[in-house]
Every structure is written in C-alpha cells, then in structure tokens.
C-alpha cells in the first residue's frame, strides 16, 4: 500500500531510506566526474585516439546492458564503424578493435575470460569494474581498468559506466559527448529531486506518484528515449517491484489491445469508470519519452500526443541544453530517483534491492 504522505515528510523518508539509496543515486554527477578524472589519469584520450575497425560492447548482468543500449542508440545507424553487442568477446576480435565492458561483480569469470581474450589479441580494452578478483587480474597491466572512486551500493553504477564509455567514444571520434556537462546537469537534477523538496516541485517524486498503482507504459518517441526507458523499467522493477511495458511508439502501435487501453486511459472517456467492472483490465499510465530533437522527432511526438492526449511527456531537452547524451543521462537519473521514492513509499525497499 502506497503511503504518499511519506514522500513529503523528509524525516520519515530519511528513516525509511535505511540503505542510503537516495544519497547514492544523487551522487550520479560525482560518479561521472570521478570517472572522467580516472580516465584522464589512465590516458584514455591517448590510448583511444585512433579510429577502430569495430567496437565491441560486452553486456554482462547488471547495468552494462542498459548502458550498451543507450550508447548504441546515441551512435545511431550512421556510425562510421560497426558496433557489436555481445555477452562475450567474439573470437574474431583483434588489434584493430576496441572492447568496452562494465560490471559490478569482480568474480564474473565469463567476463574475466573475455577480457583476457581481448587483451591477448591486442584489442584496446577499457573496463569499469572493482579493482579486485579475476576480472581485475585479467585486466592488470593490459587493459584500462577504471575502478569506482565514489562509494555507492550495488545497482547504482549506471552513470559511471555511461561516462567511461562516452569518454572512449568521444576520443575515437565516433560520438560527441561533454562528460563534464553531464556531471553538472546530473548534480542539478539531484538538487531538483532532493528529498526536502515537496512532490509538486520535485520531478522524481511527481513521477513516482504518477506511476503509483498503475502499469507504466514507457513508450519512446525515438531510439535513445526507448533505450533509457529500458533502464527505467529495470530500476522500477529493482527498487519498487513495478513491471512496465517498454517499446518504441511505432512498436506500441502493433499491440492493438494495449494501445487501445492506453488511448482509453488518456482520453478522459473513462474518467468515472470503475476498473473493477472489467476484470483484469488494470490501470495504465502512459509515459511518452523523448530525447532527440528535430523535425522527425517533432512529427512523431505530435502524432503520439494526438492519439494519447492525456499522456505524460518526459522530454529533458526542454529543461536542459547540451545534446542527446545529457538528456539521456538526466532522464535515467530521474527514473532511478522516482523508483526509489516509489519503493520507499510503498514499503518495497527495506533491504538491499539487489
């Protein structure tokens, strides 16, 4: 049962947040900044200055999957080199390639073997991971290892991994990303979402209340937004036990029953309807996510808003400048904090969420 009064009671929030999760999420900007410092000390700009034959993004359990999806979407189909997502380093990787990996599990032996394979074949490799265990041993002296410098609980490493991968891709000339600006905007977002701010002026608390007791439909209006929606679904499940539907809007249109329910739920036609009258129908909350800007993005957004006039639109670019990477990082953090607020208010957070 959701206790929405807890959200506007900082003292009770602090008592409920036994794991320090809100503070951990709010340190996203610090994670990005410290990762940039570590990358500079490790010589990332020099090591990754030449354009590769291919880039391999290794996806292991945890946030690396979400980070890889966001990075792939940011690069887009026009990327000048092939980008491959794989659970393990492929056997064809060689000295002309770049390998990026992330994990919070220092004992992931599959990843340790992949890192060993990559460096033995001469691939330039960067890894964000703890500096102990088999993975660190595999990387020692042969790969760029960026261990965490900001202490946060497991499950809060998304900004660190994203920053590291963006720094490499920027150095390679494949993607423009201002990591310092991302850190600054994440700090500002954390301030806007501070527990002391009441729900009506706190974007994360407002988002938590909007999806409470609903099935969130996280429908992206562009590929970057959809990838961030996948991260949003992950943290809502991890911290609040909420299951979401995630899809690009064009894909959502191919789900006629769910789309019809979304239309009904946003049109106001069923304002006084009793959801119990239709067993199993449930209540949905449509969140249209937008990151990219431009004529194509505007056309998609207008079409979606016409079909779903009561849908919530989350569009960070109207709040901040700096490009798609900044907007994606900000939206990801807002989802994390909203999921935490929802989990705390619903009582689903009372121990380690992972």
UniProtKB/TrEMBL annotation:
Keywords: Isomerase
Species for this entry: Lentzea waywayandensis
GO molecular function: carbohydrate derivative binding; isomerase activity
Listed GO biological process terms: carbohydrate derivative metabolic process
Source organism, top-level taxon: Bacteria
Name of the protein described by the UniProt record: Phospho-glucose isomerase C-terminal SIS domain-containing protein
């Amino acid at each position: 049962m959701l206790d929405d009064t807890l959200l506007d009671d900082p003292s009770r929030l602090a008592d409920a947040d036994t794991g320090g999760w809100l503070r951990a999420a709010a340190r996203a900007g610090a994670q990005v900044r410290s990762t940039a410092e570590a990358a500079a000390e490790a010589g990332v700009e020099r090591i990754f200055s030449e354009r590769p034959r291919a880039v391999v993004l290794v996806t292991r359990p945890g946030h690396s999957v979400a980070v890889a999806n966001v990075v792939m979407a940011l690069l887009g189909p026009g990327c000048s080199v092939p980008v491959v997502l794989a659970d393990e380093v492929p056997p064809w990787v060689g000295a002309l390639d770049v390998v990026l990996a992330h994990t919070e599990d220092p004992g992931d032996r599959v990843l340790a073997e992949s890192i060993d394979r990559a460096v033995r074949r001469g691939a330039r490799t960067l890894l964000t991971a703890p500096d102990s265990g088999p993975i660190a041993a595999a990387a020692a002296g042969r790969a760029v290892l960026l261990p965490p410098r900001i202490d946060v609980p497991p499950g809060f490493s998304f900004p660190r991994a994203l920053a590291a991968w963006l720094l490499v891709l920027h150095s390679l000339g494949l993607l423009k990303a201002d990591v310092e600006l991302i850190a600054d905007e994440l700090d500002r977002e954390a301030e806007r979402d501070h527990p002391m701010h009441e729900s009506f002026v706190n974007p994360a608390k407002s988002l938590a209340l909007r999806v409470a007791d609903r099935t969130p439909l996280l429908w992206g209006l562009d590929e970057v937004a959809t990838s961030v929606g996948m991260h949003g679904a992950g943290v809502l499940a991890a911290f609040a036990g909420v299951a979401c539907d995630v899809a690009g809007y064009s894909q959502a249109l191919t789900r006629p029953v769910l789309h019809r329910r979304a239309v009904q739920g946003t049109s106001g036609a069923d304002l006084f309807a009793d959801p119990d009258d239709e067993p199993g129908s449930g209540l949905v909350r449509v969140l249209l996510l937008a990151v990219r800007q431009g004529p194509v993005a505007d056309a998609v957004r207008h079409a979606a808003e016409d079909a779903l006039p009561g849908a919530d639109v989350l569009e960070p670019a109207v709040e901040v400048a700096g490009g798609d990477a900044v907007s994606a990082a900000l939206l990801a953090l807002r989802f994390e904090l909203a999921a935490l607020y929802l989990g705390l208010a619903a009582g689903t957070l009372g121990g380690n969420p992972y």
